[in-house]
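Page header: ASSEMBLY MODEL / two components / 529 residues total.
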Amino acid sequence: MNKLLEIKDLHVSYGGIQALKGISLEVDEGEIISIIGANGAGKSTMLNALSRQIKIEKGEILFNGAALPSQAHQVVQAGIVQVPEGRQIFANLTVRGNLEIGAYLRKDKEGIEKDIAYIFSVFPRLQERQSQYGGSLSGGEQQMLAIGRGLLSKPKLMLLDEPSLGLAPMLVEEIFNVIKKINDEGTTILLVEQNAQKALTVAHRGYVLETGKIIKTGHGLQLLNDPKVQEAYLGVKIE
Amino acid sequence: MILQQIVNGLSIGSVYAMIAVGYSLVYSVLNFSNFAHGEILMIGSFMGFFLLSVLKVPFPIALALSMVGAGIVAMAIERFGYRPLRLRKAPTLYFMIAAMGFSVFLQNLAIIVFTPNFRTYPQLFPLTPITLGQVAIGRLDLVIFFISLISLSVLSLFIYRTKMGTAIRATAYNYRVASLMGINPDIVIGIVFFLAGGTAGLGGMLFGMKYTTYPWMGALTIKAFIAAVVGGLGSLPGAVLGSFILGMVETFASGYVSSSFRDLFSYAIMIIIIIFLPSGLLGKNTSEKA
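Prediction written out in full:
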């Protein structure tokens, strides 16, 4: 397998607090990698460091074998897109406008139209609402739009930050099905989730993050069956 | 009489609108009021003056050149004044102070370079008005009205119909998330300042043609700023609406009350709006109006 992303000894400080204390991880092409951990473990910090939203203190990030560009917009150009926590839909743009802005760096008009049509086939609700403002959508619809918007940049690697947060169980199911589908069609996925059960079920491999350090790694199911993971993140009582 | 006042109100409102959209555009993206906007207008006005009366350039070319020139000056101010603050994540107040600094600096520079004299543009259009029944419309007013209307239409087509326009709106909504879409905020903000500066330069030329050109004429834009606040800072349709409301109120106040009370009415409207509708008529909710 081809290594798509390699993080080596990543340190990030955030407002005087060490949020990441030397993290190393790898993502192979075609994988779904889940990072689980409690609130404040540093999951979102890690994604924001990858998207160049925050400065890193120390460490190396390689994407496709080359150093990751230093500016946020260049990272998207390189093929990494983040679907941020809380959807962050542009409320002042229409649903269609949100999708079009997702394709901001692309020049192939026909390809963009085809991809928008594809998103609409996956999320028919977005098609019905394509001329409504993004701010008028429900939480679930906004999450679908955020994923669709991310896909329109044709990423090699998609970073998903808490996609299931605040969604009804049925919608959570739907979102995870979509994540699997996107992955089947060739996009590598790095997923950060508090819903450890779902995240590890869908993942090829996972990492457990605790107060800025990776404390465990393994295959999705292996972690799911790990007694310590079960106790800390899945609410299973060990007698 | 009423019809005449409406015509006058539309004419003055259209110039306010062109300047107000510049205030609103910058505010929408960077959340501060660019108080150097008036000085960019002044620079555009001087450019137009020298192009027309010294270099004897044809009117449309002078118009285009002073628009582009003022746009470039605005971009330069952003590049060397505001961008360093932005990269350091400085609070809004610092931007305002920097803007005031640029305003004072450019005004005084203009006094030194251009001398503190009033300049009069060459007569470009005959002074005889066009009469339509009871209403007399000055030819210059008509030209000004159409130039404003055309430039506002082109601007709104750009903002609402093009990819870069969508990127500007996305950046205005959330700068950070826009960068996650691959949008380079430096370029978008540069273009925003070019557009705001260009319309200010155009407005400066129109003001210069109608009145005179002088180094502290930037103070004229305070009315456009009021219009932008009334309409809702950050909202382009709001800026245009506020401008026409202000234009109408001013001409009606001068026509029916007294021209010495004109400004009293403009400021009163602003105060009433700020008290009862802090985010303006069409503005987004913002906690702070800097």
